[in-house]
Design the sequence.
């Protein structure tokens, strides 16, 4: 885990750096990284665009499975890096491709010393799928600090907001302070951003 001391409170800028298929292409330095995980179409790329206010930096698609490599972005003049990861569980991706994705993600999660925080995105509308549960348990097993972002809250009936939150927290066995609701239509994401930056600053990491 990286211990670099940061003094950020906001995301001021973000630039695309590079795409990586494997370890050989990773930048070798000490910049802390936040990776974004979740099933295909859950909204990982949208989330990166929204919280950084750069609407088109991460490619959003109506066709699931578009993100096929690790896409690395420099944040705040390279004080921090964001890593957009291909989604899991997309049925139309071939079996071989799924195995390649899994190996690429495994390698990154297990070997990347820069990794400071995993943001696992799940769909607020549904009970977490078995893949979501497996991914969360995997992160927990390897002691990777994890926060959960539940996306697409704008698509939920008011009555279901509390019910679904409880269901997600219970299914994944989360602590309350790991759970963050998100909609791309919200304008204030400061809670989420502050938490991401706080964990990267190594101030009481969440587990
Ligand atoms: N209504 C609503 N739609 C959203 C939200 N977040 C994402 N979407 C939509 O969901 C679709 C998929 O979003 P992406 O950001 O491409 O999803 P992804 O997780 O990056 O998908 P892959 O790259 O395929 O793994 C797009 O049509 C987005 O506009 C949200 O908060 N609310
Ligand atoms: Mg994407």
Sequence:
């Amino acid at each position: 885990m990286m211990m670099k001391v940061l003094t950020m409170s906001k995301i001021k800028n973000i630039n695309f750096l590079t795409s990586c298929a494997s370890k050989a292409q990773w930048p070798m330095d000490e910049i802390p990284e936040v990776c974004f995980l979740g099933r295909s179409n859950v909204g990982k790329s949208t989330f990166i665009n929204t919280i950084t206010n750069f609407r088109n930096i991460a490619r959003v698609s109506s066709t699931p499975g578009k993100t096929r490599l690790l896409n690395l972005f420099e944040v705040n003049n390279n004080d921090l890096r964001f890593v957009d990861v291909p989604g899991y569980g997309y049925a139309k991706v071939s079996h071989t491709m799924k195995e390649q994705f899994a190996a690429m993600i495994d390698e990154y999660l297990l070997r990347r010393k820069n990794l400071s925080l995993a943001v696992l995105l799940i769909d607020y509308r549904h009970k977490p799928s078995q893949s979501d549960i497996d991914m969360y348990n995997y992160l927990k097993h390897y002691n990777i600090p994890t926060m959960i972002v539940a996306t697409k809250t704008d698509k939920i009936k008011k009555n279901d907001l509390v019910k679904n939150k409880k269901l997600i927290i219970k299914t994944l066995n989360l602590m309350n302070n790991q759970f963050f609701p998100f909609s791309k239509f919200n304008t204030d994401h400061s809670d989420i951003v502050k938490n991401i930056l706080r964990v990267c600053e190594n101030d009481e990491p969440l587990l």
Remarks:
- The pocket of guanosine-5'-triphosphate (ligand 1) is lined by residues 38, 40-46, 60-62, 64-67, 86-87, 151-152, 154-155, 182-184 (CB under 6 Å).
- The longest strand covers residues 115-123.
- The CA atoms of residues 200 and 207 lie 13 Å apart.
- The chain has a mean pLDDT of 87.
